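1st attempt posting a full record on here, be nice pls
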Amino acid sequence: MKNNKGYVRLVRIVLLFIFVVILAGSVVRTTHSGMGCPDWPTCFGRIIPPMNAGQLPKDYEKYLDRQDIDHTFNAFHTWVEYINRLCTGVLGFVIIGLIVVSFRKFYKTRPSIAWLSVGLMVIVVIESLLGWLIVRSNLHVDTVTIHLLPIFVMAGICVLMIHKAEGSYRIQDRTLKWISTIALILVFIQVLIGTQVRTSVDITSKALKYLEREKWLSNTGVILTSHELLAWLSAFACVFLFWRSLSYPRLQKLGFLLLVLVIGEMAMGFTLVKMDFPAFAQPAHLVLGSAILVTIFSYRLYFRKRK
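the predicted structure (as tokens):
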């Protein structure tokens, strides 16, 4: 619908901020900055975190004792974690604006779109509570992994809102419908297994005091093998989706995007395994994998039943 282009643009801005949050969270994990702010929602008991040790509160030792990497004040880790929190906060304010616009524009005609925007805010609140739980558990690996899953749900909701706002265009191709469904399932499972690989790496790297990167993947075993196998299966499915998208003008942009994302993701995966888990490749690997999942979901929505 042409008159909804401005609204679709707004939802895409929210989707962009969601990926900024994914990137910021990955940088926190990659740089081991998760306890850079060892309390929540404040940081060393302050609204604005300290820039140097001289700004620390008198009882700062009780915060530093909880850190597993510094045990001294590290301004870099503190501000990396604080910026991550700020990104989530900005996302919350952007979603509030989206809720206002959604209710004004769609509450009477398409109320499902308006309530989906509320769902985004509910998930932001859940994410904030998970952030508190992560700090309270001192970066327990399972809570860090769970912290990622609601973000995927938010991205999916944004894509669904875009499709609903754009209208009822539908493609009838049973083969493509089933292949896109299979690809979506494969990539989702691959991402979940990837979080387990990351968990194993976190445990090993911590035991090695974050040194000897060449050994970080040594204990992943069958988990990494399964992740790599699913990566190849997912890549083949995505290439097929790209090839078939050439027959449908509405799908061509998504198809090309999917192909580029898959190539980038495979390159980052190869870099992680062959170059001893370099820090720069970890956030890129997660963001590209997340983008592939969201792109396939958008692709799949063109085959759903529409009113």
